[in-house]
Design goal:
The protein has nine helices and 14 strands. With 258 residues, the chain is an alpha/beta fold. Strands 1-2-3-4-5-6 form a six-stranded mixed sheet, covered by helices on one side. It starts with a strand and ends with a helix.
């Protein structure tokens, strides 16, 4: 299997996973045009579409693509998404015929209430399509859910194997790391990740995919129980934060103001 990040809009990625026969799936096609160009340029055949949530930059190209390729579309049970052929739920296992691949469905609310993620352990390196829930060095903004929901969703995703590849859908890593360094300027993991990502971006490469293992050490939202991070949060707010949920909510609110 080959994994490709197709740029879309200003900072989106539409993920495409292709087998040796050039049969592929795409994830969250917010814009049909770049997918159509990629398929034509690489002589690929679209076999399935995965949708993580209802935001327009994730579903906007769905109807145009399925008009040309009437393929199965797996996504959350949300009537506002036109084009879903298979509504899926937490704990479901989907088996794709083209490409031949299996995914587990994980409900991960927070960014939106309908948000799901797709996890495959049938590849040599496990793969996670997590939409806008877990970002590289960050997490999604809370448009519909609560801090507690997002925190629970992140903990669920980070229970996956450390070598699992994390395919989120925005190139936010540099901005997220700027925030991480504002929280803990001297943190070795934040600084090393910032240097590594800067080198990738300077070379015109995406900062993604990340891995679960890398996120555990370089994502501040996965380290809210770190003592130094707690001190930084308490200094920012000017009051003690004894509970994990308080610290997570305070960190997300700080990021919203950043």
């Amino acid at each position: 299997m080959q994994l490709f990040a197709i740029p879309a809009f200003y900072d989106n990625y539409i993920w495409l996973l292709a087998d040796d026969n050039n049969h592929c799936l795409v994830v969250d096609p917010g814009d049909a045009a770049p997918v159509e160009r990629f398929l034509a340029d690489n002589e690929m055949t679209l076999g399935a579409i995965l949708i993580t949530h209802h935001h327009p930059d994730h579903v906007g190209g769905l109807q145009r693509l399925t008009k040309q390729w009437p393929v199965p579309v797996y996504g959350p049970d949300n009537s506002s998404i036109a084009g879903i052929t298979h509504s899926v739920y937490d704990g479901d296992r989907i088996a794709l015929a083209s490409p031949t691949l299996g995914f587990d469905v994980l409900e991960v609310p927070g960014h939106t209430l309908d948000h799901i993620a797709f996890y495959s352990d049938t590849l040599p390196e496990p793969l996670l399509f997590c939409g806008d829930t877990l970002f590289s060095a960050g997490c999604g903004r809370l448009f519909e859910g609560t801090p507690e929901q997002m925190d629970n969703s992140l903990q669920r995703l980070t229970a996956l194997p450390d070598h699992c590849r994390v395919c989120c859908t925005h190139e936010y890593t540099e901005a997220n790391l700027r925030f991480a360094l504002a929280v803990l300027p001297e943190d070795p993991a934040f600084n090393q990740r910032s240097r590594d990502v800067a080198a990738l971006r300077a070379a015109g490469q995406p900062s993604l995919p990340s891995t679960i293992g890398a996120e555990k050490i370089s994502n501040p939202f996965l380290r809210v129980d770190d003592k130094l991070l707690q001190i930084s949060l308490e200094n920012e707010l000017g009051k003690p934060l004894q509970e994990h949920n308080q610290r997570f909510a305070a960190l997300r609110a700080w990021k919203d103001r950043f």
